[in-house]
Amino acid sequence: MRSILCFGDSNTHGQIPGMGPLDRYAREQRWPGILQAQLGAGWHVIEEGLSGRTTVHDDPIEGAHKNGRLYLRPCLQSHAPLDLVILMLGTNDLKVRFHMPPSEVAMGIGCLVYDIKELAPGPRGAVPEIMVVAPPPMLDDIKEWESIFAGAQEKSRRLALEFEIIADSLEVHFFDAGSVVACSPADGFHIDAAAHEALGVALAQEIEAIGWADAAG
Question: Considering the entire predicted model, what is its pTM?
Fold first, then answer.
């Protein structure tokens, strides 16, 4: 059996658009659950989504535990061996409090990739496959979140290109979630159940294209 770690923020946790962080879709509706169903019994898909998670930043308001880099290493060791690590982060880095341009958000993703490679939590101590997923761009109307994410909408539209550049330079896989889904107008930056399904299906196809699906089954 092959193992996949899905490491992300509220859009991996499955937060329902327009609702609070404790309101989430059922496991079988969330994209990691869809991914599990698509790939089948030869795969073990592990969800690690946290609302508000950043790439590498301690959050001065929500807490240092929202720093993805702090949690990634123990998470990798906890679930090792891993055949694939999927990283889908970046939206929370665009909050005004962090003052991050898209290029530096991508550098944060690059730090996580470096950490995975250094720790090498794959089978027999190898480096696992790594896939960087760019989150879908935010909508212009983000409701009451405008003051927290002021200016983030334009930055979010540039994340995919910056993420692809960093993924190519580090020789890891890349997928643009915005190519198959859009954020919900309910709040402008979370994805709804239909988008979770579309993303899970698309990622399953990307994973199978790596060329190991037959061996896993």
Answer: 0.96
